[in-house]
Design a protein that fits this description.
- The protein contains 10 helices and 9 strands.
- With 284 residues, the protein is mainly α.
- α4 runs antiparallel to α5 and α4 packs parallel to α6.
- The C terminus is likely disordered.
Length: 284
């Protein structure tokens, strides 16, 4: 973040949307985003952002506040906490998995997550419960996600809060009516907690055409949001669809690697929900 603060002009997503709409985006503009509402956003990230005078946008799935837990974290915690040396995952379409080493457990988690991600919400919850029993794990952590007071502390610190549905469903896997309820109810809950308007959105999982489609973009527009982000790689530019702005994570534990991936992302071809490549341009 020191590198980011020294190199880029950091702004919230709402500010970037305003600039993109007016074609006034300054050089080296960058938006920092956090998804889902993890407690470490408030406990670890917020103090760093404040020390460096940076603002970020936090997309919150409201159904997990105050002791909730996302399904993928339940999977991780089941496998991590199991005292067994191996588990038979035939019920999940997988072979028996060793749990003897940390790497074995990571491999097991990596095999399970894609098997469950696109299941309907209730079926996925049932499968996770079955995994918990299979792993022989009792209680799971209830402190992974933010509390209401932590969310309010982010807002008071000048951070932007965005909507991210209630239960973080894959929007394409549920009905249009359910999707609109998830998007609208999540926004309403945030506005009630923060006593302010919430007008930016992030599509859960966010892959265009796979996780959401044009009907969901229209729902977001109809509900009065000002813009939204996907997880399609690329750099936001003037003329882009403000309701499908690209976004990516430049993984890396060193500045050269992280910065190199950040620069490489600017050359990526992006895709809209119809699957058509968008025109590449030189970013501002």
């Amino acid at each position: 973040m020191r590198f980011v603060a020294a190199t880029f002009r950091v702004m919230t997503l709402g500010e970037a949307i305003d600039h993109l709409a007016r074609n006034t985006l300054p050089p080296r503009s960058l938006v920092i985003t956090f998804d889902d509402g993890y407690a470490d956003n408030a406990e670890a990230a917020l103090p760093i952002l404040q020390r460096l005078g940076l603002r970020a946008t936090f997309f919150i799935s409201t159904g997990f506040l105050n002791g909730g837990r996302m399904w993928n974290d339940s999977v991780i915690e089941c496998v991590r906490a199991s005292s067994k040396d191996s588990i038979d995952l035939e019920a999940f379409g997988l072979a028996r998995q060793s749990l003897r080493t940390i790497e074995d457990r990571r491999h097991c988690i990596d095999a399970l997550l894609p098997r469950l991600k696109y299941l309907p919400l209730q079926e996925r919850a049932d499968e996770v419960l079955g995994l918990q029993q299979l792993c022989g794990v009792g209680s799971l952590p209830d402190d992974l996600m933010m509390s209401t007071s932590q969310l309010q502390s982010l807002h008071r610190a000048g951070m932007e809060i965005g909507a991210h549905t209630v239960n973080h469903p894959i929007l394409k896997s549920i009905s249009a009516k359910e999707a609109e309820r998830e998007i609208g109810d999540g926004r309403h809950a945030l506005e009630s907690i923060l006593d302010t308007s919430v007008n930016v959105f992030a599509y859960p999982n966010g892959k265009p055409g796979k996780d959401y489609e044009s009907a969901h973009v229209e729902i977001v527009k109809r509900l009065g949001f000002r813009g939204a982000v996907s997880t399609a790689p690329g750099t936001g530019r003037a003329g882009d669809d403000l309701f499908q702005l690209p976004r990516f994570t430049p993984w890396g534990r060193s500045i050269p690697v992280w910065g190199g991936r950040l620069a490489l992302n600017q050359t990526n071809v992006r895709f809209d929900v119809a699957g058509a490549p968008s025109r590449d341009q030189t970013p501002k």
